[in-house]
């Protein structure tokens, strides 16, 4: 059985193509905010996701959502 959980989220799209949906981010004070990096900024990223639309490697690093 599927658990209904609908937090308020911000859909984060790929910074390269603007089409690929990379992740949903909780819109709540105190949560960690994701900074998305293009492939040339990979040295600043902690995690990597592959865009489902353009297949580029997108870097992610944390910031505090205020
Ligand atoms: Zn993309």
Question: Keyphrases for this structure?
Answer:
66 residues; 3-stranded antiparallel β-sheet; two-stranded antiparallel ribbon; 44% strand; globular
Description:
It is a single chain. This protein has one domain (9-64). It has a three-stranded antiparallel sheet, with no helix packed on it. It is 0% helix and 44% strand. By secondary structure, it is mainly beta. It contains no helices and five strands. Zinc ion binds at residues 14, 16-17, 20, 51, 53-54, 56.
Write the layout of secondary structure elements.
Elements: E1 9-13, E2 21-26, E3 32-37, E4 47-50, E5 57-64
Antiparallel strand pairs: 1-2, 3-5, 4-5
Bound molecules: zinc ion.
Please write the string of helix (H) and strand (E) elements: EEEEE
**Which residues form runs of ≥5 with pLDDT under 50?**
none
Largest sheet: 3 strands, antiparallel
Question: How far apart are the first and last residues' alpha carbons, in Å?
Answer: 35 Å
Q: What integer is the average pLDDT?
A: 91
Number of domains: 1
- Read across the widest sheet, the strand sequence of neighbours is 3-5-4
Overall 3D shape: globular
Q: Helix/strand/pairing class, anyone?
A: mainly beta
């Amino acid at each position: 059985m599927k658990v209904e959980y609908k937090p308020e989220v911000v859909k984060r799209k790929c910074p390269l193509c603007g089409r690929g949906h990379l992740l949903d981010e909780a819109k709540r004070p105190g949560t960690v905010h994701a900074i998305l990096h293009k492939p040339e900024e990979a040295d600043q990223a902690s995690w990597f996701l592959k865009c489902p639309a353009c297949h580029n490697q997108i870097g992610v690093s944390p910031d505090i959502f205020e």
